[in-house]
Specification:
Helix content is 33%, strand content 16%. By secondary structure, the protein is α/β, with parallel strands linked by helices. It is globular, with a radius of gyration of 23 Å. The protein binds ligand NA7. Ligand NA7 binds next to helix 6.
Length: 530
């Protein structure tokens, strides 16, 4: 079939992009691999999955009606609530009729002769489009550990991002969790409530901080709704579109008492404040970072009774906030439970998965259920899984071998008429806020192309070089660039992902928008248009 625009993915960005294009009368089609809408919130059904951003700051802001109609039940919504919300959005705006489910895109090749993209789906069907929009997510290509014997395990096992749609219970079961990132932490604190035995295989501890979730009562609900305009305006002003933004003070500008009191206040507050609303220098200054790391380490020692265990849970190879901070609810207290065991796999490495469980260098652990919370081939991984080829037949994966090169994180030189939503080098932060901006920007670009009867839009080499250099300079100045994580492009389970790269834009969201707005108001003169 022929379309004006094809969107890959029916997650938060794909849904809104479809809504916007349809408003313009553009013939758009969404291809979605899953059986329903929701993207991240469709796939990640693992126990305990929930927002770490305030629910009300995470919803769409584009429809006043939607804002008025939808009541978030919790300050940090659990996955089922978010999935319900996204289904509600799809129904309210009648989006499903242009979404084709169970449709994984396998190839997307640009044809210079037609200035169009030809796509193939997994079922072999072919489609063509004038404009290709990737809305494939930045954490959507799950990766299993490269451990021998994974397929030989006789019990149940599952990656967290491929969780079954049927209910799963842990009562009476011996459960293993491999991985202690944001996903592992959410899973562990939930599974620990019911499992007969829970064993956590930890390679690197992370600095976790309390989420302080709670139900939203009627008075809060009224206040949230009345405050939507102010709240979204605030998200536009903050560094990364969260409700929290760095404090203008530097860590050592204040007295030790003031510093301690400020850290205590942040530790007691909801959400990402301790990471995103801390002193302005904690992510760039080593001493400042050590101060907050020391504070959180003390908290961990207070919360975990066994001090040898506490030491294992305190990160030693990276400072607070230099990796994604998992937010938690009684995570550390889990380690005080009699049914919970921590295996530090640096001390006793996993040798293999067996039919009965997990064999480490010093023991064989028997399990009924192994949960792989081992993360994703992040940011570029979802692109690598599609055979995307540009004007000269070059594969995007090969073009990005040394790290992504983009223009504003949206366009790629050599890949005309293709726009990326939440791709590498774009402003991420509070994702839906960034999504709405990017979708609007891409929609305006498509309008411009249509209104000027253009058929080809491409980033220039100079534009890409300048944006990529800018993003690299920003990223390399952060302490987080010294640390291995999905944010620096490292995944030990994926061939070729062992070298740190700058995969994310780490400047401020307002600066990002200012730059993108300038390109648009300048008539896209920085692009190659034909
Ligand atoms: P992450 O943050 O990448 O965490 C993956 C975890 O799995 C992490 O603890 C890894 O240890 C561990 N891991 C990965 N491979 C292995 C192997 N082979 N053996 C042992 N342990 C392993 O993914 P998440 O899903 O938790 O979170 C991703 C993002 O989603 C999160 O940041 C939020 O923004 C939402 P490592 O640290 O690499 O030593």
């Amino acid at each position: 079939m022929d379309y004006d625009a094809i969107i890959i993915g029916a997650g938060i960005s794909g849904l809104y992009q479809l809504y916007r294009l349809r408003q313009l009368g553009i013939r758009a089609r969404v291809f979605e691999a899953g059986t329903g809408v929701g993207g991240t919130w469709y796939w990640n059904r693992y126990p305990g999955a929930r927002f770490d951003s305030e629910s009300y700051s995470y919803g769409y802001s584009f429809s006043q009606e939607l804002l008025a109609e939808w009541d978030w039940a919790e300050h940090f919504a659990p996955q089922p609530e978010t999935l319900r919300y996204l289904n509600y959005v799809a129904d309210k705006f009648d989006l499903r009729r242009d979404i084709q489910f169970r449709s994984r895109v396998t190839t997307a090749h640009y044809r210079e002769e037609t200035r169009r993209w030809d796509l193939t789906l997994e079922d072999g069907s072919r489609h063509s489009t004038g404009f290709l929009i990737t809305a494939i997510g930045l954490l959507s290509a799950p990766t299993m550990p490269r451990i021998e014997g994974v397929e030989t395990f006789q019990g149940q096992s599952c990656h967290t991002a491929r969780w079954p749609h049927e209910p799963v219970t842990f009562e009476g079961k011996r459960v293993a969790v491999i991985g202690t990132g944001a996903t592992g932490v959410q899973t562990i604190q939930e599974v620990a409530k019911t499992a007969a035995q829970l064993t956590i295989f930890q390679r690197t501890p992370n600095w976790c901080a309390p989420l302080h979730n709670g139900k939203i009562d009627a008075a809060e609900q009224r206040q949230i709704k009345a405050n939507y305009p102010e709240m979204f305006a605030r998200c536009q002003e903050t560094f990364a579109c969260f409700l929290h933004t760095p404090d203008p003070r530097a860590t050592f500008e204040v007295t030790p008492e003031e510093r301690e009191a400020f850290f205590e206040k942040l530790y007691a507050e909801k959400g990402f404040g301790i990471w995103q609303g801390n002193f302005r220098d904690i992510l760039v200054d080593r001493q400042a970072n050590a101060a907050i790391s020391d504070f959180v380490a003390r908290k961990i020692r207070q919360r975990v009774k066994d001090q040898a265990m506490a030491e294992k849970l305190i990160p030693k190879n990276h400072g607070f906030g230099t990796r994604r901070v998992p937010l938690e609810t009684k995570y550390y207290e889990v380690y005080n439970q009699a049914n919970v065991k921590l295996v530090d796999i640096n001390e006793t490495p996993i040798e293999r998965i067996t039919a009965a469980g997990i064999k480490t260098s010093d023991a064989e652990h028997a399990f009924d259920f192994i949960i792989y919370a081992t993360g994703f081939d992040a940011i570029t991984g979802s692109f690598d899984r599609i055979d995307i080829r540009g004007a000269d037949g070059l594969k995007l994966k090969d073009k990005w071998l040394g790290g992504p090169q983009t223009y504003l994180g949206v366009l790629v030189e050599g890949f005309p008429n293709m726009a990326m939503l939440m791709g590498p080098h774009t402003a991420l932060g509070n994702i839906p806020r960034s999504v709405e901006y990017s979708v609007d920007w891409v929609t305006d670009l498509i309008c411009h192309v249509r209104d000027h009867k253009l058929t080809r839009v491409e980033a220039t080499q100079a534009g890409v070089a300048s944006w990529t250099d800018h993003v690299k300079a920003l990223g390399e100045s952060l302490l987080s660039f010294e640390v291995n994580s999905w944010m620096t492009g490292i995944n030990t389970n994926v061939e070729g992902k062992q070298t740190r790269i700058v995969a994310r834009y780490s400047g401020s969201a307002p600066a990002y928008r200012e730059r993108c707005d300038a390109v648009a108001s300048n008539g896209y003169a920085e692009l190659a248009l034909a």
